[in-house]
Amino acid sequence: MKQRIILPVLLLSTVFSFAQKKINAPQVPCNGSADDVPGIYTDHNNQKYGPVSLRGTAAEKTAMMKNLIAIEKLEEDSRKDFKLTGSAARVSFARYDNSNYGKNAYARYGYQLGVYAYVCHVTEHVPKIVDEYKTVFRVDINPNLSPVGVKPVGTGEFSMKYGNPRYDIADDLTSKYPNPISKYFSEEVLLAGRSDDYKNKHADFLKLNNGNGYVENWQGGNRYDKHGSNSYQWIDRHYFITKPGVPLLIPVSRKQYLEDMLAYLELEKANFELLNAKQLSEIANQTAEWAKKKRDALESDKIAYPKFSEAKKAKLKDLLTKQKPEWLQKPAVVDQNTKFKESDKILEALGRFYDEEGEYKSALYVLNPAYFISNNGQPAKPLFLEVQFRYEINKDRGFSARLFNNWEKNFDMDALKKMVQ
Predict the structure, then answer these.
(1) Could you tell me which residues come within 8 angstroms of residue 328 by beta carbon, excluding any fewer than 6 positions away?
(2) Helices (H) and strands (E) in the chain — how many of each?
(3) Which of 122, 250, 320, 421 has a CA positioned 20 to 30 A from the CA of residue 20?
(4) What is the CA radius of gyration of the chain?
């Protein structure tokens, strides 16, 4: 089957301040498919969008470049007996913002091999290189564990009664009211964008948390479907390379959760007072009936909230003093049901724990202090790595599966493990 070439306009963000470095596929005749045409490889010295720019001090730049070139060499060595075809594989290096692991910041930077497919032009009958890749190999040094944490029930948005008005409590108000709850993780948070295997969520979480094995997120096709010769799968594989024997995250105990909730209530109180006053001020000059009803509700909330807050504190303190030590040291598994937004339901659910995760029930985790130690003045040092290979399986995308299969067989993962030891 002949493929029509589609050359979309590539909109470049301000991140790319350099003109794109063009390369052309070999100008050899093709008929329908260009999958067997000899491939092209360019290293970091010929990045698609200009020269390498790694922000940081001179020492940091030197350390980052050394690590990135070492990864580049590992990938090149994996292909020493492999013939690249049907694509242009282009290396790029990048420095991102720092990853903040508790009190310690590490430089986040990465290696990327973007693999751009060839297509056979329908009228010229010669290969062309598509503008965007779907196959890519990445190594992210000191990656973000997740874009956001998890908010246990009883935090965030709530209403005093009947759902209106609502109060959306921000993670932080001022440094005077820190929010330990905002540092929590759940299994779903760690797996977000990394695994869609809903049947094996806990097993996949353990693979990442312990740096043992890989997980996959299916971008195209379905992992549980039967796949024929004409089917298409687009699979995003992830590994974490970590220090052996030390998990990235450790469970939050019930005791820690209850104590953190007490600290959170100070933040909630300050936020509530601000939000309540703000909503009152916004309708201060309104004379319509709806404004009067809302004003009455806000004034009622102002009176009711202190009782609600004190009731939560009392319940938390009661659990902390009366529960046995063995109960308090169990992992905090809480209900994540978003329907618990009214104060009476929140109060009813507060301090209710479960023995296992399930639908709407999440085990809570925090960064492991034994893993996330000080960088000792070396922010570019690899603390842990995330390895990603996004590949395609399809008869018209043979180059992708061939490259992935060779990488899986020949790439030296043990060499990456030595970088974090």
Answers:
(1) 253, 254, 255, 258, 320
(2) 9, 16
(3) 122
(4) 27
